[in-house]
Design a protein that fits this description.
The protein has twelve helices and 17 strands. The chain has helices at residues 2-25, 28-38, 51-67, 134-142, 160-163, 250-270, 290-296, 334-342, 365-369, 401-414, 416-419, 430-434, and strands at residues 79-96, 99-100, 106-110, 114-118, 124-128, 148-152, 169-170, 177-182, 190-210, 215-225, 230-231, 246-247, 275-282, 304-310, 323-326, 348-351, 375-379. 30% of the residues lie in helices and 26% in strands. The protein is elongated. The strands form three sheets. Strands 1, 2, 4, 7, 9, 10, 13, 14, 15, 16 and 17 form an eleven-stranded mixed β-sheet that branches. It is an alpha/beta fold. α3 (51-67) runs parallel beside α6 (250-270), α6 crosses α10 and α8 (334-342) packs across α10. It folds into two domains: 25-70 and 211-433, Aminopeptidase (3-Layer(aba) Sandwich); 87-199. Bound molecules: zinc ion (ZN). Zinc ion binds at residues 225, 252-253, 285, 311.
Amino acid sequence: MKKIVLSAVVLCSACMLQAQNINKIINTKDVTKIEKVLSADDMQGRRAFTPGIDKASSYIESEFKKIGLQTFNGAKDFKQEFSMTESKNVSLKVLIDGKAIDKADVVSFSYQPQLAMTEKSDVQVVKINAGDKFGPKFYEYYQSEKNLLVLVDASFKPRIANMRHIPQMTANPGGNSVVFVFGPTDATQFSIEGTNTITKNALNNVVGVLKGKSKPNEYVVFSGHYDHLGVGSPAEGVEHDATDSIYNGANDDAAGTTAVIMLAKYFKKLNNNERTILFTTFVAEEIGGYGAQYFSKQLNPDQVMAMFNLEMIGTESKWGKNSAYITGFEKSSMGEILQKNLQGSAFKFYPDPYPEQQLFYRSDNATLAKLGVPAHTISTSKMDSEPNYHKVSDEIETLDMVNMTQIIKAIAISSATIVNGKDTPSRVDSSALSRK
Ligand SMILES: [Zn+2]
């Protein structure tokens, strides 16, 4: 009996502590302080491969250190570094069954200084036929990390212009080549020769760990991306400052990054997480999600019980204050668990009201969801009308810091039963995703 009484008292005082602490730990003053640093002009829009991104990384690292997080897998610091390969095509000659193909009908993604493909080399010939869904096929081949010659039906030629805007960049150190050729439907004999200028540059995620008490091998991820668009030419029609050229990305996604830091503070103070929590801020979301892709290969996705990806939570949602939405709500039971945990509170989480925008697939959660992880993005952004989205006017003055603080608290409260191991969301059916 005594033991039970004691544990009841301990349990209850823990609850009280939790209730008292949350308002104290997650407060508007601290949230504003962090948000201000991350979205300041001196971060120069936090674009990948610029001094601004390094500055932002250093700041997040210093916050993780102050909080007292551990590094991931015994790493020497919080930086999860990887090399990005960038390629600039210098020359390209394509010959298929004796016929020279016009350069205008070829798009190559090659990460080899000397590209040389023939029917005798280690290359697969695949096709995108007339009537196929171009987008999914394109991404399958583009992301395959294999050497491919892709024969694309001539009806898709209007896609070429868009494909030329895709950065010739990869986090795959292997250096493969995927060459899309528009027109020919067969290639029995072929020769593709090219030269590329290859440069390698380091990028890094920032990952901090709070080890779980009883389930250290089960992970819960809180993430946001700390990169943004950088500095551009002054955008037209920016009313409050026509000379501004810095994409501050206060909402996108300094807000999510701020939330990750605040949640780290909170859970470290509580110090009772049964599962291991990975606080992760991703790099290079805006240029292709490379940070999340690298992160997903550094762990076993089966060990990730849930991923809370936080994107643009600084403005009021379409339902007003104290509310947010969850993308891909129906793809796992995570949303229901979060809703259940918020019952009786002033907060409400809704399913994503903009399904036609495919938001589930447009942020870093998608990379882990494709591996079966219940990985969802929580956001408040009004994607049909958000006035400052991807504009230089996405600045801290446009955010509601009090409401954002409430959202962060709602995330902390709603995640409690997942963090303490009582609830485990169902897995995402990744085979259904890849069919999309
Ligand atoms: Zn974003």
